[in-house]
Specification:
Layout (H helix, E strand, L loop, with lengths): L1 H21 L4 H13 L6 H4 L8 E5 L5 H20 L12 E5 L25 E5 L4 E6 L2 E9 L10 E4 L3 E6 L7 E9 L4 E5 L12 E3 L1 H10 L4 E2 L6 E3 L3 E5 L24 H9 L2 H15 L1 H6 L1
Parallel strand pairs: 3-13, 9-10
Antiparallel strand pairs: 1-2, 3-4, 4-5, 5-10, 6-13, 7-8, 8-9, 11-12
């Protein structure tokens, strides 16, 4: 009987929906029907069915000097604590440093809602994957076909050892490696960007300002995510030449070491805490042809059959 019911249910549902349509359903019922159809394609579209997300505002709070991370978890839960750390460009260890921090007045289990980057970039609609690292606001963004899929805080190079700007690619990776600057520095979820100078993405301390020796530091969960998401280069058999580039990474912008940290202006001057689509388009336009050409070359190497069919 159970199997028979499952078989008949779709037909019954169709009849009910047709009947409801004939009877001119209420707006609420139509919303439910529309939501059901939308969510069949992608869970991302579920966000479109929510009547209206609350407007998220930000404020500064001061909190106890002892057990600050524990305090954050008690007040905002683990999800909220992670969002607050990202907003302040801090890791758990350095949350004890500032006198006050920025917190949102609403916690929703969706980190993308707190992103300083645009949710969509039309210029990147043909780009499979790309990472953007903004040194001014100390944050990274990951896009797939123009859609933002992840973002997080960074700590790029300090003033004496700056992180270079430009177009890079994720070359080779290692779960754990030792820094060439100091043998005591263990770098987890390491992804090389510049092979000869050792510029890379990896997990390490995030103190709330640029402090690295030219690398891009990340929270461990973000470094782990990129480690599994980004693609490595492909070399010739003798490993002398690159025949296919990894995921493109654009590093850009300049941090003002003498100014107010941009993310601390999110309440008073929100435009300074974010990066606009126009700004990103201007930066990406300098590299888009190279990115698309290298992407096409990689696809041709990985899928030679598709090239022959064309």
């Amino acid at each position: 009987m159970k199997k028979k019911f499952l078989t008949l249910f779709p037909l019954v549902l169709v009849i009910m929906l047709v009947k409801c349509k004939d009877e001119k359903p209420s707006n609420s019922l139509q919303t439910i029907i529309d939501s059901t159809v939308k969510t069949q394609d992608s869970l991302i579209l579920l966000r479109d069915t929510v009547p209206q997300l609350p407007l998220i505002n930000y404020k500064f709070i001061s909190f106890p000097k002892q057990n600050r991370y524990k305090f954050l978890i008690e007040e905002y839960d683990t999800i909220g604590a992670k969002i607050i750390l990202a907003l302040n460009r801090l890791d758990e260890r350095f949350i004890r440093k500032p006198d006050s921090i920025v917190v949102p007045d609403t916690i929703i289990n969706d980190k993308l809602l707190y992103s300083p980057f645009p949710k969509h970039l039309a210029l990147l609609v043909s780009v499979k994957k790309i990472l953007l690292v903004d040194q001014r606001i100390q944050a990274f963004a990951a896009y797939e076909f123009g859609n933002l899929v992840n973002w997080g805080p960074t700590s790029t190079g300090k003033k004496s050892t700056p992180t270079p700007n430009g177009l890079f690619h994720t070359n080779w990776k290692s779960k754990k490696t030792i820094s060439t600057d100091n043998a005591e520095w263990i770098l987890k979820w390491y992804f090389n960007l510049e092979n000869f100078r050792g510029v890379s993405l990896h997990q390490y301390e995030l103190p709330g300002y640029p402090a690295s020796h030219a690398c891009v530091r990340l929270l461990e969960e973000d470094a782990f995510w990129i480690y599994n998401w980004a693609e490595q280069w492909i070399l010739t058999k003798d490993e002398e030449f690159v025949i296919a580039y990894g995921t493109p990474v654009i590093i850009y912008g300049e941090y003002n070491f003498k100014g107010v940290k941009p993310w601390l202006l999110i309440n008073s001057e929100p435009e300074k805490a974010k990066v606009s689509e126009d700004e990103l388009n201007e930066i990406i336009n300098n590299h888009i042809l190279t990115i698309l050409t290298r992407q096409e070359e990689r696809e041709r190497i990985l899928n030679p059959q598709m090239t022959l069919q064309q």
